[in-house]
Amino acid sequence: MISLAGRDILHSWGKFVLTGMGLGLLIGVTLTMAGVYRGMVDDAKVMLTNSGADIWVVQKDTQGPYAEASSIRDDAYRGVLGLPGVAQAANVTYLTMQVRHGDTDERAMVVGFEQGQPGEPNYLVAGRRLLRGHFEAIADVKTGFRLGERIVIRRHDYEVVGLTRRMVSSGGDPMVFIPLKDAQEAQFLKDNDSIISDRARTAANPALNRPGIPGLLDAVNAAQTVNHSVNAVLVRVADGHPAESVAQEIRRWKHLQAYTREQMEEILIAKLIATSAKQIGMFLVILTIVSAAIVAFIIYTMTLGKIREIAVLKLIGTRNRSIAGMILQQALGLGLIGFVVGKIAATIWAPAFPKYVLLEGADALRGFIIVMVVCALASTLAIRAALKVDPATAIGG
Amino acid sequence: MDAGIRIEGLSKRYGEGDTAVEALKDVNMSIAPGEVVGLVGPSGSGKTTLLKCLGAVIEPTRGRMTLGGEVIYDSAAGGWKTKDLRALRRDRIGFIFQAPYLIPFLDVTDNVALLPMLAGRANGASRARALELLQALDVAHRARAQPSELSGGEQQRVSIARALANQPPVILADEPTAPLDSERALAVVRILNRMASQYQTAIIVVTHDEKIIPTFKRIYHIRDGRTVEEAGEGREIS
Under DSSP, is residue B21 helix (H, G, I), strand (E, B) or coil? Predict the structure, then answer.
């Protein structure tokens, strides 16, 4: 038996392919949206993996350092180091900010870390690790910096001595790694005008500027200028110690919040990017509905254009299921062309996106099934119209 | 006469009560295998209704129809003899329409071969049958062409081949010459006569066409749902 759908597609392949390409671009956008979400999740996981930590110790009653602001004393790590099961503990700071790159600003997450400790980028694609205690930086290649270039962060210039890759924040901002002390200053140090203003205010306060205690004013000023805060302590657990039990000890004895890898993932994925995920989910639903409407409209219009032929086919003995099968196959054919075009388009344009777009094979498979189901459902309107055609309309007036 | 198709006392009423319209009233017809008859009448006389009843597209209200000696409808015996009217139309009735209505996405051969295929014949045998008919109708050289590449006359010849594809005992032709000029219209009638004779098929040609009416040996005039048979001129077509 002849494939009526196949012949019809071959007969008007130009119209079919063009329609399929239009649909394909829409499907490509849908696959890309899913890829954006997967990219966000992957960025979050990669960020946690790259930090090299098993436990994140943050300010009590916060979900820092990524989802909320967290500030703890920079000597808290010493107490943590003393707990059983803790192999390494190190301070880190995280600050998302604009850094100067020549005449332009780049958005980046500036990470302050201690050399050789958790928080240090664990691999480089070019250059070397930080050797000096100040004013050197390692940048993710996505920042656009090259070795030897200078980054302006707040008041200081930093020389890029190393480049790393796939080091991004959960928001997709590329990271710039600088020494912890510099990062603390960049994050907490006030500008000169503020310092002068604060000093004048302190000097005008008779309680802090007592003539009888000459060193008091200087001491207060020094205390206001120096900052001893960090955002988190990253802990590496010793072999044989479950991370959760070590985290419990930290919570119990140090009055700090401690999150294991699983808990931090939960915070990042279920909370931090939850709104973005819902946003993308809404887009996916809308795009799916729009795709379904387009397929339904196209197939319906194509069927209406063949009403007389369908009447003739019915009159000469073609079964309803053959006619329904023809329309269904055309809808599925359209969906197949659309999916192939969409997959190719998404693969081509995904690397051009500023944030990481992760196109997963499982998503593509799910997308293919959804496209086919949507096309099948969308064809029901046209099938209904075709089955209602009276074969008598082929005869006379 | 051994009828290709015989109709006895056929009536068709649309609607009920005061609004009922009697479209066909006690129609009687008999067409022998190999015979071509004209069915002529003004608009609204009941031609299309009769064609639809004969084509098993609508059910008559009363009467009896015999096709190739076999009763296909008898109102006194419960109506249609088969529930599968689609198969009845496919296997035992050929249709030629006012416009050829070829399936635009099938080539000429497959337009003709589609019917035997629908009837369950193998693709190869169906295409062989199609080519045989296309040869008989002098359009075999366009066998691979698309319908849109054919002239009006060629399209109508292909539609005649399609009507003959399952060797039906009767063909219903609904104004088959309407879109054609005189020369082509007469050529179509000549072909119908030849095919009727060659394949022993009874052909009913519904027409308004004054050019072809004189060519029929028998004509049924239909007016207000009633038919009157008269002898035609049976003029030879040169």
Answer: strand
